[in-house]
Amino acid sequence: MIEPNVAGGLIGGSMIGLASVLMLLMLGRITGISGILTGIITWNRNDGLPWRAAFIGGLVLGAVLYRLFVGPLPIEMQAEGPMLVAAGLLVGIGTRLGSGCTSGHGVCGIARRSPRSLTATITFMAVAVITVFVTRHLLS
Predict the structure, then answer these.
(1) Under 8 Å between Cβ of 131 and 139
(2) pLDDT band at residue 126, thresholds of 50, 70 and 90?
(3) What dihedral do alpha carbons 139, 79, 120, 17 form, nearest 10°?
(4) How many Å separate Cα 100 from the centre of its chain?
(5) What pLDDT, on the 0 to 100 scale, is given for residue 130?
(6) Looking at 15-19, 46-50, 57-61, which range is the least confident one?
(7) Please, what is the Cα angle at 103 between 124 and 94, to 5 degrees?
(8) Is 23 in contact with 31 (CB distance < 8 Å)?
(9) What is the pTM of this model?
(10) What is the DSSP letter of 98?
């Protein structure tokens, strides 16, 4: 029997993969969350505002449904609100500098064998490892 946390990750990962494939087949678009959200924020009517809103709404609705039917995730936040806001802004800046996020580069780009996406994903992961090391071992 698979543990609930493992099953949740397996199901969630499968849904991300399926959504990415469907987005490419049905709309000819890469599933990059930062690009989808940017399209909503900049409100470009000629670039598919309804599907972008539906996609982001589905992400939010999925989290709400999970919370209602399964319960809260067993995650303990180790940072306060201001630190989380700063981290979110830095991630947003990084996605603009890297011309995409982990969903666009890591899931879709690597699947398409894009050298640029492979480089971006390696960079994301290396920076994540360094950040965790610095915050847990040097700053604490």
Answers:
(1) no
(2) very high
(3) 150
(4) 10
(5) 95
(6) 46-50
(7) 40
(8) yes
(9) 0.70
(10) T
DSSP-derived secondary structure for 23-60: HHHHH-----HHHHHHHHHHT-GGG-HHHHHHHHHHHH
pLDDT interval class at 134 (50, 70, 90): very high
> How many residues appear in the chain?
140
> Token digits for 101?
């996020």
The one-letter amino acid code at 2 reads: I
- 80-115 pLDDT tens trace: 889 889 988 888 888 888 777 777 888 888 888 889
User: Which residue is listed with tokens 């994301």?
Assistant: 124
CB 124 within 8 A of CB 106: yes
Strands (E), the chain: none
Rounded to an integer, the average pLDDT of 114-119 is 90
Sign of torsion over alpha carbons 91, 106, 123, 95: negative
CB atoms within 10 A of CB 24: 15
Q: Residue 97 corresponds to which tokens in the numbers above?
A: 């500098």
